[in-house]
Amino acid sequence: MNPTDFSAGAAWQRGAFVPIANASVPLTDWGFLRSDATYDVVTVWDGAFFRLDAHLERFARSCARFRLDPGRTPGEITDILAQCVRLAGLRNAYVEMLCTRGQPPWGSRDPRQAVNQFFAFAVPYVWIANEEQRARGLNVIVSDVQRIPPSSVDPTAKNYHWNDLTMGLLGALDAGGDSVLLTDAHGNVVEGPGFNVFAVRRGRLVTPREGVLEGITRRTVIEMAGALGIPVDLRALPADELRTADEAFLSTSGGGVLAVTKVDGRAVGSGRAGAVTQRLQETYWAWHRDPRYSTPVAY
Ligand code: PLP
Predict the structure, then answer these.
(1) How far is the CA of 250 from the centre of ligand 1 (A)?
(2) Residue nearest to atom 3 of ligand 1 (CA)
(3) pLDDT by residue (tens digit) across 156-200?
(4) Is 128 within 8 Å of 194 (Cβ atoms)?
(5) CB hemisphere CA count around 141 (13 angstroms)
(6) pLDDT tens, 137-152?
(7) Over pLDDT 90: what percentage of the chain?
(8) Does residue 179 line the site of ligand 1, with CB under 6 A?
(9) pLDDT digits (tens, 9 = 90+) for 189-236
(10) How many angstroms is it from 113 CA to the middle of ligand 1?
(11) pTM score, two decimals?
């Protein structure tokens, strides 16, 4: 790979910017060997970061929760992220910051002795659902794979303990679904690979309060609902309440508000993206132009 061709994306690793195809994590880094890492993903849309401060704050909280130190201030991280976007020349981008455990000195198994490592990269914007899926709405399968309990891995700190999500996703794809929702020990839906979930019931939004990553898009949906006068209930969401909802949608930095029109292959409500979902979708993209939430990249 040409060391100056950043057109497919740019990464920051071990003190240098490299084309995304040349970026790597050392094999012995516990980030790789033990999924011992945290990360956050912020997007750039039309040349501006969306809610960058919220993502930087969550990244700092995730690092603190897992006793990881990226060794950089939010300002320094911002500069690195912006430079990745600039080098790649992207107007719409998926921008990730990561902190891995690194590795303790040979012979030691004490994570406190590891030197934590910071990485970052920018690649073209990633959609959780493709164009066809977005047009018709998603068919989501409720899995009986249980999400790792919060008492084992804190889901509010963004992590790579994804084997449950990946195995659930494989099962859902095999069953003809587009994606998957995992459940907790009581049969409530919690979240899926890269997204939170909302049901719309009698004009109210319902989204799980606990056992989930507090998505920045989830927060945006809650704030948009406040602005639009739509009540929101943060509480457990039994799978049957999702199946019998008037509308359902996912929230994610990978596409915003994504309509769910089928659960387990059966229509939700009318079987089409509902009016509340569409209103939230329009507002989500409109808020990208709001200076309160956007930080332009200096190209
Ligand atoms: N839940 C999980 C497990 C995730 O990985 C993600 C995002 O990657 C989300 C929810 C949605 O979070 P956000 O809205 O900040 O993208």
Answers:
(1) 10
(2) 194
(3) 999 999 999 999 999 999 999 999 999 999 999 999 999 999 999
(4) yes
(5) 18
(6) 999 999 999 999 999 9
(7) 99
(8) no
(9) 999 999 999 999 999 999 999 999 999 999 999 999 999 999 999 999
(10) 30
(11) 0.97
The mean pLDDT of the chain is 97
Q: For residue 158, which atom of ligand 1 is closest to its CA?
A: 5
- Encoding tokens for residue 12? 């920051």
Domain 131-287 has CATH 3.20.10.10: yes
Domain range summary for the chain, segments of one domain joined by +? 10-124, 131-287
Check residue 128 and report its DSSP letter.
S
Helical axes 74-88 vs 52-65, angle rounded to 10°: 120
Whose tokens are 């930087």? That residue is 56
Beta carbon of 249 within 6 Å of any ligand 1 atom:
no
Contact yes or no for 139/262 (Cβ under 8 A): yes
* Amino acid 2: pLDDT: 79
Ligand 1 in reach of 195 Cβ (< 6 A): yes
Q: How far is the CA of 213 from the centre of ligand 1 (A)?
A: 6
Instruction: Could you please state the CATH topology (level 3) that the domain comprising 10-124 is classified under.
Output: D-amino Acid Aminotransferase; Chain A, domain 1 (3.30.470)
pLDDT given for residue 4 in this prediction: 84
Whether 253 is in the pocket of ligand 1, judged by its Cβ within 6 Å, is yes
Instruction: List the residue whose alpha carbon is closest to atom 10 of ligand 1.
Output: 195
